[in-house]
Request: fold
Amino acid sequence: MNVDLIDLLDRHGPAQAVVWDFDGVLSETESLHQASYAQVLTARGVRLVGDWYTELIGNTAWQNWQTLIDRGLDAGPQDISLLEEGREAAFASLAAAGLKFSQVGVSLVPAFARAGVRQDIVSNGDLDLIGRAVRDWGISDMVTVVHRAPDGDKLALVEERAAPGVITFDDTDRYLLAAGRKGAFTVGVRHRHNSHGALPADIVLSITGERILAACA
Reply:
């Protein structure tokens, strides 16, 4: 890292708790998610053109399949469970070699743990897979993976936890806005898959390879 983020965050007051997003923040998984959707769509004869994946980032699987159906996928709501079963299998296969712990996580999760700060992970992703990654990374005693109903949206979990004194890390506009409205200090994480987003946050981290650049928004 080329910036002391703990010092930067401390200027805004000590954290009482941290709320982490997973995909795109603690792990660089968006390319795997994109590939998993592509495998299922291609098998159904869908020709993928243009930037079809950007609109899906940050949403629940049910929302994403409904978006794809609305865009012309020959399926209905009754098919979403089967579509997602295939996508989950594809993603698990792609992730079998192990998910990479992001540089943001490597740098900050242990530092917050040493400071005694509670850390929760809220995600619309596969919670079993996230739990395995957390154990593989050796941080299961530092963070809690928050339960989410299979068809639930993490938005409610963000709103329940965001408050003054809480720091939230996310790469999607609507969750950053929701946390900010609750008074949390927000950190946007920009990477190559979310260049479309405004990232309305107090601080925006730009990830370039192993480098993290921080700037006040």
In short: The first helix runs from residue 5 to 10. The helical segments are 5-10, 30-43, 61-70, 80-94, 103-114, 127-136, 155-161, 173-181. The mean pLDDT is 87.
